[in-house]
Structure formats: structure tokens, C-alpha cells
Write a structure and sequence with these properties.
Elements: H1 6-12, H2 16-50, H3 56-61, E1 66-67, E2 71-72, E3 78-84, E4 90-93, H4 101-104, H5 113-117, H6 119-122, H7 129-138, E5 142-143, E6 146-149, H8 153-163, E7 168-173, E8 180-186, H9 194-203, H10 212-215, H11 225-235, H12 237-241, E9 245-247, E10 250-253, E11 256-259, E12 267-269, H13 271-276, H14 280-287, H15 292-304, H16 327-334, H17 344-355, E13 359-361, E14 366-370, E15 376-379, E16 385-387, H18 391-407, E17 419-428, E18 435-444, E19 451-457, H19 463-480
Helix pairs in contact: 8-19, 11-15, 14-16
This protein binds zinc ion (ZN).
Length: 482
């Protein structure tokens, strides 16, 4: 081991230029690393860092410099905007009133809906730098960026009107992309009046602020026969092909009697006609042949196991059929009564997967962010997908859903403008015979994207009498809209 002699070191120090150069190099390198990190943070990380709920106060501080941007439908229709009053105070206004209450939301007394999930984007500005420099000197606010949603106003309006005065929900989406076209929940509220009405609404106990389309949990009634059918096809593929049942209006096992709607005797049926007629006796009978453990596994893949992650607030549905369940529980589960609860959004994703060859697309509400001149700042990618069933299973279920419209409880949707598919449901909610009316399905026509729809009308009555006509109003509007 040797040490440099002091003398040698002294010799080196004789060249001051070299030393300065070294120091300059070190500082230049440090400077570049810092600039690099800053750029990386600004470009890659800061959005994620700032745009999380823990930073909501920091985001709201942006409002000091930015005039909150608009929320638009997919064609530019204004759903939320900020009006600047002469005294420079601001008012958030919702030109469509109640129609978008839950999905667009509000910003007074806390935030809800897209106003909450897109808060960060609406308070950023990608306006022209010259304008922003001018604003900085003149103490004016920069115009915030706007959110273009996937929603389509004519379909939203039709969904809202189709639900009428009933409580419940209507939700539609493109089954092949996951883009939500409409999302309505009632009872609703006027987001323009939230400042004044929030306390009363929150305390009303009516669940007015709940978005029933994604958070409402309901007995699925006969819409659940879609899952029962799939499970029967999986467990008994051979039996399913030659299945027959002679319906006399009811079916009894272990002392539990299951009735068809209005005790209608459906007569001789195969599996497709049992489904089209929504025959409870036939489904109670075949429900007894299903293994609870296997049925549970199938259900878990259909969003019963974890919440659906999307820009809508969601609730976990429920499927409770256990190994060793009684005949009564098996029969009730098979016809969608029992202890099963589903959300309208969940049913929408299941029928969408049938249309989309077995793949369920993640639902999306946001298309892009544009600046004040309409230039795209950021485009949101379409969501992930998840396989719910094989392509063959989807094809069989599709033929069954078509049978419902051609010769079953969905005949009200038969028309020349488009081809509809779906399943009705009439879910009993009490012993007095009150029922929720359901319809879930989709429709296609040449030259148009397909549309999937789920309708739930609380306490309305039979699905075929209430939910089918409501769905028809929405589908008619969508397919006649240019
Ligand atoms: Zn029957």
C-alpha cells in the first residue's frame, strides 16, 4: 500500500485551471441530474402525485388561479360550467338540471360524481402560454381544461324520461368499448340547488344521493336466469341440449312451492323456451341439479367477488348459496329471489359480455381532456377487459336472449329498426306481491355501434309491462339519433 507523497500533491495543485474545470464538471453533472429529476417528476410523476385524494386540498388551491373547466357530453353539449359574475365571484351551473345529478355530481358541500373524480383535470389549465402570462400580470384566472365524457345527451334524456316518476335506474353503454352512454338514478335532485338543499337531501333517508345505477343492490329476479342457464350449460352440457320440462304453473320440492308469474302453465318447454317464458317452475327444477360450490365459483367471476373499479361509485353485490343449501334455497337462488343481490351496472356488464363474445369491458366515463381552444390535452385509454364466459357460451346465451324478444317476455322490443336481445325480471319484494321491474339486454343495427342497457323500476310491477317499454324508449332514441 502506498500513499501519495505530499510533494506530488502540491505539484498537481500548480494547475488551477484543471481544478476549476473539475469543480465545474461536478456541478454541471449535479445540475443536469437535478434538472433531469425535475423533468421526470413534472412529466411522469406529478400528475399521479398530486391527483390523489390525500391531496384534494392542494388541488383545490389551484382554483385560486384557474377558472374551473366544463364537463361536456361526447358531442360537446355542456353538462357543467362555471359562470363568472360581474363582481368576479363564480357560480358552478348545471344547464341540464336533475338529468345528470348523480353522474356529473356537484361541488358544493363536498363533491360527488365526475366533479369529484375529474376535479384535478378541471382545475388545470393548458391555455396558450401568452394568455397565461398576461393573466398572471393582470390578476385574471386562466381558463381551466374541460372534460369530454362518453355520455350522449339524447340517450341520457331518453333514459331519464323513460324512468318517469319511478325510483330506480337506467344505465347504457357500448358493450364493445365500455363507454357509458347514459346513467340515470331516481329519486334525483337539482345540482344547482345543492348549496341550499344538501342538508335536507342527505338527511331525508330516501337515498337520494345514492347512484342506484352502480350502488343500488336489488334482488335480480328472473334476470338472474342468465347466470343459472350458464351454470346449467357448464355442469350439464349434454342434458341442456335435450332438456324438457312440462310446466303446470308451479313446482314443489321439500315442501317449498315455486310459482310461475300469475301461475301461468307454460306447458311443454325446452331450455330456450323455459328462458324465453321466464318459467320459474322449470328453473326451480333445474336449479336443484346445480352444485352450490360450482355455482358460487361461476358467480364470483361475474363481479360478485370484488367491486367493479370504474369512475362510478360501486357497491359489492351478494351471492350466498352455500354447500349443503336446502332445496328451497337452491330453487329460490335459481330464479333470482333468495339472498342474491345485484347492481344494475353488474347486470349491464354481464349482458355486454354476451354481446362481446364473452369479454366484459371495464366501464369508462371519460374520453378526453381539452384546453380552452378545444385542443386535446390528454386522451383516456379504453378500459381493461375480463373474460366472463367462452365465445361458445356467449353464442348460446345470445340465442336465448333473442328468443325472449322473438317469442317471450321481451316481445315489446320486436321491431324493424334494430335487433334487440335481453331478459326481463319481476323481482318480488314483499308478501303483498309488489315487484321491481327489470330489463337487461342489448340491441344492434347495421351501421351503428351496439348498445347495452339495464333498467330497474322499483315497485313498478312486471318487467315485461314496465321495464321493457322503458328500454324501448331509450333504444328507439339511440337508433333514430343521427
Ligand atoms: Zn312455467
Amino acid at each position: 500500500m502506498s500513499f501519495p507523497r505530499p510533494g506530488k500533491k502540491k505539484e498537481k495543485k500548480k494547475d488551477p485551471h484543471k481544478e476549476y474545470a473539475l469543480v465545474t464538471y461536478i456541478f454541471s453533472a449535479l445540475f443536469l441530474v437535478m434538472i433531469g429529476y425535475l423533468l421526470w417528476f413534472l412529466i411522469a410523476r406529478s400528475d399521479r402525485f398530486i391527483n390523489n385524494s390525500y391531496n384534494s386540498k392542494r388541488i383545490d388551491a389551484f382554483a385560486k388561479n384557474t377558472l374551473r373547466g366544463d364537463i361536456l357530453d361526447r358531442e360537446g353539449e355542456v353538462l357543467a360550467t362555471t359562470e363568472l359574475l360581474p363582481d368576479k365571484s363564480e357560480v358552478r351551473s348545471y344547464p341540464k338540471g336533475n338529468r345528470y345529478a348523480h353522474v356529473v355530481g356537484y361541488i358544493s358541500n363536498g363533491k360527488m360524481g365526475l366533479e369529484q373524480t375529474a376535479n384535478y383535470y378541471l382545475l388545470r389549465s393548458h391555455a396558450n402560454p401568452l394568455l397565461r402570462a398576461k393573466n398572471a400580470f393582470s390578476d385574471e384566472k386562466d381558463p381551466g381544461d374541460s372534460l369530454v365524457t362518453t355520455l350522449l345527451d339524447p340517450v341520457q334524456q331518453a333514459s331519464w324520461e323513460a324512468l318517469g316518476d319511478y325510483r330506480g335506474a337506467v344505465i347504457t353503454m357500448n358493450p364493445e368499448t365500455g363507454e357509458i352512454l347514459s346513467c340515470v338514478s331516481k329519486p334525483d335532485f337539482d345540482p344547482n340547488e345543492m348549496e341550499r338543499n344538501y342538508e335536507a337531501l342527505a338527511a331525508s333517508g330516501d337515498g337520494v344521493l345514492l347512484n342506484r345505477a352502480s350502488q343500488g343492490r336489488y334482488a335480480p329476479g328472473s334476470t338472474f336466469k342468465i347466470l343459472t342457464t350458464l351454470e346449467f350449460l357448464r355442469e350439464h352440457p349434454a342434458k341442456a341440449k335435450k332438456y324438457t320440462f312440462d310446466c303446470d304453473g308451479s313446482f314443489t320440492s321439500d315442501g317449498k312451492e315455486i310459482h310461475c308469474f300469475h301461475n301461468t302453465a307454460h306447458g311443454e318447454e325446452d331450455l330456450a323456451s323455459s328462458f324465453a317464458n321466464s318459467c320459474n317452475a322449470s328453473y326451480a327444477s333445474l336449479g336443484l341439479t346445480l352444485k352450490p360450490g360450482e355455482f358460487r365459483k361461476t358467480a364470483q367471476t361475474m363481479f360478485f367477488d370484488k367491486p367493479i373499479i370504474c369512475s362510478l361509485p360501486t357497491e359489492l353485490p351478494r351471492f350466498l348459496l352455500e354447500e349443503g343449501a336446502s332445496d328451497a334455497e337452491k330453487m329460490e337462488t335459481a330464479i333470482g329471489q333468495g339472498k342474491t343481490y345485484m347492481t344494475p351496472l353488474q347486470l349491464l356488464l354481464i349482458v355486454s359480455a354476451i354481446e362481446n363474445k364473452g369479454m366484459a369491458k371495464k366501464p369508462v366515463l371519460c374520453r378526453e381532456i381539452i384546453n380552452n381552444e378545444g385542443r386535446t390535452v390528454e386522451r383516456f385509454p379504453l378500459g381493461d377487459e375480463r373474460r366472463l364466459m367462452t365465445e361458445e357460451e356467449a353464442a348460446v346465451l345470445e340465442s336465448f336472449l333473442r328468443g325472449v324478444v322473438e317469442e317471450g317476455t321481451g316481445r315489446g322490443l320486436m321491431n324493424d329498426a334494430y335487433e334487440a336481445y335481453g331478459k326481463t325480471g319481476t323481482a318480488e319484494i314483499n308478501s303483498a306481491g309488489d315487484c321491481h321491474a327489470w330489463f337487461t339486454g342489448y340491441a344492434k343495427a347495421e351501421g351503428k355501434d351496439p348498445i347495452a342497457i339495464t333498467v330497474i323500476m322499483e315497485g313498478a310491477g312486471a318487467g315485461s309491462s314496465y321495464a321493457v317499454p322503458a328500454a324501448k324508449k331509450v333504444l328507439d332514441t339511440y337508433f333514430s339519433y343521427e
